[in-house]
């Protein structure tokens, strides 16, 4: 049909610069080479290269199937028991603080979206300070709600270390009310976590400058242990009146596609937390109305049953041990890779160019993010040597 209208049309939309991590999944899947190695997106693989459903989650799903009598609506908070159970292992001594309330969200991503929309409602002038490189979805989530992102250098790829001075300088020159977006543990994409002393310094400056910390914690239990990995967050909660925490069960319960997460809100009083929560529920109502139930219900069943919980903790320990084993194998292969043994969680970053990343893809079927980020758990046991040799050949 001929149209004379000159209003903008959907077909006029510009090309979008999309997050390459999801594109990488499709690219690796379409590679017919049987010995390809997909170390792109952050999913756990066991020694055989499979991403299994965790034993306890599988049992919990069976119990749900047997016992669940209804799929009627639960309400905007989702499963009300779920955040309480998450809070017990995430917040530690802060669980039960009447100034902290939590709700179920579709993954950590849903929690982050809610957090930044809430911040935008309270203080649209706030700038979000984040160290780069960071998880590629942080920027679109922050700027998508209309907040300004203020990036500072967090990690020096060549030196293979945190740029702590630059981090402190950026946080120290922030305005009161600005947001400090912090990775709780297992930094994505670098694996370079703050030490306890650095957390203490960051906490001090956050308090001094009157910043609002948003802690993104999606890998608890995959670094040094559940309590160890939450130590930085708990220090922040000790010191700050207002904190937002975006939590994810994707990795530590292996429920990736079920979208299971929590947002915790802490303010100075139970009353103001209740008011903030009412805002969050309204925002959630506009976005997804109610979170999906199944994954969170399975996690709840695991956490409520002592035997299932013990088995989850054991399997989480096995995952952590596998991470450590692969990290040591890679780090022992070349002095330039020694740093990988010191880092935490699923990711580390190689100081290689985009061309070298593409060469690894073409010549060896090794798929990693353009940034040089790779998932140390992305390979089966029998692929570790081949992966390491290819990397050593590239870094020289
Ligand atoms: C990753 O960083 O690979 C994961 O967190 C998956 C994602 O959603 O990006």
Structure description:
The chain has two domains: 19-53 and 311-395, Aspartate Aminotransferase, domain 1; 73-304, Type I PLP-dependent aspartate aminotransferase-like (Major domain) (Aspartate Aminotransferase, domain 2, 3-Layer(aba) Sandwich). 43% of the residues lie in helices and 14% in strands. The chain contains 14 helices and 13 strands. (2S)-2-hydroxybutanedioic acid binds at residues 21, 41-42, 135, 137, 188. Residues 21, 41-42, 135, 137, 188 line the site of (2S)-2-hydroxybutanedioic acid (LMR).
CATH class of the largest domain: Alpha Beta
H and E string: HEHHEHEHEEEHEHEHHEEHHHEHEEH
Output the radius of gyration.
21 Å
Give the CATH superfamily of the largest domain: Type I PLP-dependent aspartate aminotransferase-like (Major domain)
For the largest beta-sheet, the strand count, sense and barrel status come to:
7 strands, mixed
Q: Could you name the ranges where pLDDT drops below 50 across 5 or more consecutive residues?
A: none
Q: Total strand count, please?
A: 13
Helicity, as a percent range = 40-55%
Structural category is: alpha/beta
SS field, number of helical segments: 14
Instruction: Please name the CATH topology of the largest domain.
Output: Aspartate Aminotransferase, domain 2
CATH architecture of the largest domain: 3-Layer(aba) Sandwich
User: Roughly how many Å apart are the termini?
Assistant: 60 Å
Name the bound molecules.
(2S)-2-hydroxybutanedioic acid
Average pLDDT over all residues: 95
Enumerate the strands of the largest sheet in spatial order, edge to edge or round the barrel.
Answer: 2-10-9-8-7-3-4
Shape: globular
